[in-house]
Each structure stands twice: as structure tokens, then as C-alpha cells.
Design a protein that fits this description.
The complex is a heterodimer of chains A (106) and B (121). Chain A has 106 residues and is an all-beta fold. Helices cover 0% and strands 48% of the residues of chain A. In chain A, the strands form two sheets. In chain A, strands 2, 4, 5, 6, 9, 10 and 11 form a seven-stranded mixed beta sheet that branches. Chain B has no helices and eleven strands. The radius of gyration of chain B is 14 Å and the shape is globular. Classes of the chains: A mainly beta (106), B mainly beta (121).
């Protein structure tokens, strides 16, 4: 299985901050990397697919970059509704695997 | 816009079989752009892929669960199902069904609300 490692596991930030979350794959996965946001008690919601493609309806303050083994999710100007847990997920080879999550707190 | 809805017992006894169904509305389960997946999340923990099924019955399973998991699809009812045998307390989790869309790559674009399944006697 491909292992996905996110860093940091949690972070504290303020409204308006720029936030960066990293995701590293244990082997090369091209751009087959997705990012999800999950709020307490809710299902995850896709933010970006194919490493950098913004899902319809997702605000442009979210962006993604990277390829092969190193990926980044960036949130420019953090908003109150962005406080949540973020997961990366690879869909390069089965079984799909998720990172352990990054909790973004106030 | 797809809607997915999980259904099934919320409480299962140890060693018994967990069975869940995901009803799909707003689109056809025979859409060739989609696999249909199950993901679970133990309380307070991260997301774990269980498996995926195509409308023709083709499946992928997580090797860690493969000996206990069976996915099936019913195109006449536009739904797909999960069976997990010989459950233990470690299988207690919120179970999500999701649509796995093939674009640049596969990603879960729609999710059910999730259903908590507790394994306890």
C-alpha cells in the first residue's frame, strides 16, 4: 500500500492567515492526489483533485500543488468556516489511502 | 447532482455480519465514469478505504479487509451494498458510501451522510 503522511498533524491559525499543509507519498503517484475537508459530524468534502484542480464551488482561496511524492494544500486568507480537518488521498493505485489528517484550529 | 444515502443496522454483535446499503439518486449507478465506494472512520480517527465496485460488478478491496468484505451492486434498484463478516469492536466506525468519479484521476465527489455502526454485545 502507498502510505500518505501529512504534516503538521494540527496547527493553530487566525482568520486571515495563510496556511500550508503538506502531504508526502511513500512512492511516486504522479498527480493522483486529492484533498478533502471534514467538519465535525459531517462527511468529507472534496476541495481539489488531480493535485491542483479546484472542485466546482470551492473558493479560490484553496489551492494545491505538487507531483510524484510531495504535495501542498494552501489556504490563503483563512476564513472562520475553514477551521476543520484536512485529508489528502491518493488514487494512483488500489487500495486508495488517506493521510492521517491535519486539524486546523483557531 | 448525486445523492447517496446509507442504511442498515446501527448495532451489530461481535462475530456477526455488518450489512449496509447505499441508495443512489440523482443519477444512474451504471454511469461508466463512476466507481462506487465505501470508506469508514472509527470515532476520533482518520479515514479508511474499504473497497469500490463498478456497475458491472468489478471490485477492488482493501487487502486488510479483503477476507471479510463483499461488495455488491443492484442496478435495478440503483444501489450498492457492503457486507463485512466476523466483526469485532475494531469495526465500530462511521461508514460512508461515496461516488468515485474518474476525471483527471479518481476522487470522491459525493458522499452519503454516514452511518455509525457500533459492534457490541
Amino acid at each position: 500500500d502507498i502510505q500518505m503522511t501529512q504534516s503538521p498533524s494540527s496547527l493553530s491559525a487566525s482568520v486571515g492567515d495563510r496556511v500550508t499543509i503538506s502531504c508526502r507519498a511513500s512512492q511516486r503517484i504522479s498527480i493522483y492526489l486529492n484533498w478533502y475537508q471534514q467538519k465535525p459530524g459531517k462527511a468529507p468534502k472534496v476541495l481539489l483533485y488531480g493535485a491542483s484542480n479546484l472542485q466546482r464551488g470551492v473558493p479560490s482561496r484553496f489551492s494545491g500543488s505538487g507531483s510524484e511524492t510531495d504535495f501542498t494544500l494552501t489556504i490563503t486568507s483563512l476564513q472562520p468556516e475553514d477551521f476543520a480537518t484536512y485529508y489528502c488521498q491518493q488514487s494512483f493505485s488500489s487500495p486508495w489511502t488517506f493521510g492521517q489528517g491535519t486539524r486546523v484550529e483557531i | 447532482q448525486l445523492r447517496l444515502q446509507e442504511s442498515g443496522p446501527g448495532l451489530v454483535k461481535p462475530s456477526e455480519t455488518l450489512s449496509l446499503t447505499c441508495a443512489v439518486s440523482g443519477g444512474s449507478i451504471t454511469n461508466s465514469h463512476y466507481y462506487w465506494g465505501w470508506i469508514r472512520q472509527p470515532p476520533g480517527k482518520g479515514l479508511e478505504y474499504i473497497g469500490s465496485i463498478f456497475y458491472d460488478g468489478g471490485t477492488f478491496y482493501n487487502p486488510s479487509l479483503k477476507t471479510r468484505v463483499t461488495l455488491s451492486v443492484d442496478t435495478s434498484k440503483n444501489q450498492f451494498s457492503l457486507r463485512l463478516t466476523s466483526v469485532t469492536a475494531a469495526d465500530t466506525a462511521v461508514y460512508y458510501c461515496a461516488s468515485d468519479y474518474n476525471s483527471v484521476n479518481y476522487y470522491y465527489d459525493y458522499w452519503g451522510q454516514g452511518t455509525l455502526v457500533t459492534v457490541s454485545s
